[in-house]
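1st attempt posting a full record on here, be nice pls
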Amino acid sequence: MRNVITLAGIALAFALAAPASQAAENFDGLWAKTAKDCRNKEGPDSKTLIDMSKPIGGKPAPMVDQYENHCRIDRKTVVGDGVHLSVTCFEFWEYFNKGIEPRKATFKLAPGPNGTIKIDGKAHLRCKMPASGR
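the predicted structure (as tokens):
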């Protein structure tokens, strides 16, 4: 009987932990405030790439990438059905790669209606990822 109770307790713990661990993964992808911003073009817009497992130099380097705002995710904290990301950001890729002029920031991610998410309280829709040219 003790084994049954122990197994039930372990199963319950996994069931309760699964949504929290899955929450962060639902935010991966390319997001923008409007469909117009989703177009693959250079220049300032609202596109935000969230990649919790992006490899850089052969090592996992979770990041949030926006126009002239390249951020390494230092810590993920699950808050309800959302996630707070503590990040270190750099204005340019060269600065990111060399660790020059870092600044600390926090992104607050939460699920929104109809497959959208909220980034710092502002609604974003998922963009189609550009073809990789394979």
